[in-house]
Every structure is written in structure tokens, then in C-alpha cells.
Design a protein that fits this description.
Elements: H1 2-18, E1 20-21, H2 24-33, H3 36-49, H4 53-76, H5 84-104, E2 112-113, H6 117-137
Parallel strand pairs: 1-2
Helix pairs in contact: 2-3, 2-5, 3-4, 3-5, 4-5
């Protein structure tokens, strides 16, 4: 019986060594610089790749809800209040990176890290039109 456990553990380690996920830093960085929903999508992809579809959908739903609440809060605050979006993104990224990631992938540090270039390009392509619209609307 112990031989089977050791073999299962060995197989798991082999799978992990070939399996890549987005890192805690990537999830936190995307949450800060784009929005919590972008970090949520990265974490959702990690969870889906690990076969945790229910948790992936939960994380995406929470990140969408958090982003919507953040937008409402930002619109309610007077324009003289610094940069509340950055502050709210820091909190949202922290929740994703320091609560949900370790909760659903406790051994996340043992996985190889996935490159961020593809999601970075997609995030920029989504965000740039919104930034340009904000600049030229004033």
C-alpha cells in the first residue's frame, strides 16, 4: 500500500514539473495594473487547468463582482480623492493572490511559471481603447 502512495506522489510530482501556472506575482500585477477581473481570469485559468472548474467559476464570479463594486465606489467618490482605483485594485489583487490562490492551490509555489506575454498583449488590447476613450472624452 505504501508503495502505491509513493508511486502516486511521484506521478503527481512528475505532472507538476511539466505543468505551468500563472504565478502569484502575475495574478497580483495584472490585478493592480489592469483590474481585479484580469487577475481573476489568470487565477481562473490556473484552476481550470488543474481541473477545479467549480473553484475557477467562483473566483471569476467574485473578481467580476469585486470589479463592479469597485466601479460603483469610484463613481461615488468625489474627483478630489487621489486614485481610488489603484487602492481598490491592490486590495482585490491581494485577495486573489494571498487568499484564493493558496486556498485552492496550496502548493502553487512548486509549479513551473507560465509566461505572461499572451495575457499581457490581450490585456493591453482590451485596455488601450478604454484609456483612449477616457482621454479623448474630456
Amino acid at each position: 500500500m505504501s508503495t502505491e502512495l509513493n508511486q502516486d506522489q511521484l506521478n503527481t510530482e512528475i505532472e507538476k514539473s511539466n505543468f505551468k501556472i500563472y504565478s502569484k506575482g502575475a495574478i497580483y500585477g495584472f490585478s493592480i495594473f489592469f483590474s481585479t477581473v484580469f487577475g481573476g481570469v489568470l487565477l481562473m485559468q490556473n484552476l481550470k487547468d488543474l481541473g477545479k472548474k467549480k473553484e475557477a467559476n467562483l473566483v471569476l464570479g467574485i473578481s467580476l463582482l469585486y470589479t463592479a463594486i469597485s466601479i460603483v465606489i469610484i463613481n461615488l467618490l468625489p474627483s478630489t480623492v487621489g486614485n481610488p482605483a489603484l487602492f481598490l485594485n491592490l486590495i482585490g489583487g491581494g485577495i486573489l493572490s494571498y487568499f484564493f490562490l493558496p486556498k485552492y492551490i496550496p502548493n502553487f509555489e512548486s509549479f513551473s511559471k507560465k509566461a505572461i506575454w499572451k495575457p499581457l498583449i490581450i490585456s493591453l488590447l482590451i485596455s488601450i481603447p478604454f484609456v483612449l476613450a477616457l482621454i479623448y472624452s474630456e
